[in-house]
Amino acid sequence: MGLKSKLKIEDRGFLAASIFHVAVAVACFTILATVDFGLIHIGLLGIISLATAYGLFKRRLWALWSIFVLAFMATVLVISTFYYTLGSDILVDLTMAAYLTLTWIFTAYTASKKRELEF
């Protein structure tokens, strides 16, 4: 049985959220590997993003709590990045704005579908 037949239509939102968090984790680990290794918060963000992606894919209730932690961490990261780079690098500004927007969209989606998460 293929992956497409296993997924129902209502599963696509959790799948999209899982893919988003895996992409964030890959981006965090790439940044951690290419920039100074003193950015421990980026590694922590990547680890929690991977765990959240797994929890959302398996529909675990604890993923709801970790997604709220990630939303808070993303908000703080974006605000601090905007403080230091606003206007000087438009690509970083647009990327951070898209990251924050998608993070809050998937957080709101997961919170609205919390009844579908299992213990």
Topology:
Layout: H1 3-6, H2 12-34, H3 40-57, H4 62-85, H5 90-112
Spatial separation of the terminal alpha carbons: 26 Å
Would you tell me the overall average pLDDT? 86
**What is the count of distinct domains?**
1
Uncertain segments are none
Round the Cα radius of gyration to an integer and report it. Answer: 15 Å
The number of E-state strands comes to 0
Helix-strand sequence: HHHHH
Shape: globular
- Major sheet, described briefly? none
Bin the helical content: over 70%
Share in β-strands: under 5%
The DSSP helix count reads 5
Class inferred from helices and paired strands: mainly alpha
Explain the overall architecture:
The protein is mainly α and 119 residues long. It has one domain. It contains 5 helices and no strands. Helix 4 packs antiparallel against helix 5. The radius of gyration is 15 Å and the shape is globular. The model has no long low-confidence stretch (mean pLDDT 86).
Search tags:
119 residues, mainly alpha, 5 helices, 0% strand
